[in-house]
Predict the 3D structure of the following.
Amino acid sequence: MYNLSTYRGPYSYPPAPPLPESRLNSDFAFKSIALDYAGPLYIKDIYGDCTLNKAWVFLFTCCSSRLILLDLVADCSSSSCSMGICRFIGRRGVPEIIYSDNGSQFVSTETQYFAANHSIKWKFNAPSAPWWGGMFERLVQMTKRCLKKALKNSKSSYEEVRTLLSEIEMVLNNRPLTYLYNNQSDEALTPNHLVFGHKLKLESSLSASTDLLVE
């Protein structure tokens, strides 16, 4: 006879597996990165007429420090993806590893040829397994939340959206990575602490919204 009380116990989760080595490497920021898109956004035409154009947010995040970098791109094509990565390299250097989902712009021959020419190793999520990309999917969600709070239903220009993205980037890079304990004098560890050594200051309406920064 089976002991039925054994099967009535609470469900227990399996132990969490260890983090990959790229998440624990502390050589320098953006040695290993993950990237994804958010959008589309609808922005006003640069010539000032009533035409609305689509644009996407291209998100990069450092796997170890969790610092993010936000870029604005006109489409999700392979060429736009390659140029976005090229701009990232001009600002942060060439990464050794890139993590992403299986988006068509990432798996394309053009993008992979660009990565091979820069000696970048590209690692993809397992197909139909979005939880593999939790380290960038969560940041995409936080970026969208900030955009929704700031833009609401307004239609902004290209320059206004770029400026807003720089503020969102600063706010998210000031998010706490650790628990806030009872000692109020302790400052929470943030991605900016890990890369720049201190929390950067920003006077913005977004900075007061601490609920946006809860991971």
In short: The radius of gyration is 20 Å.
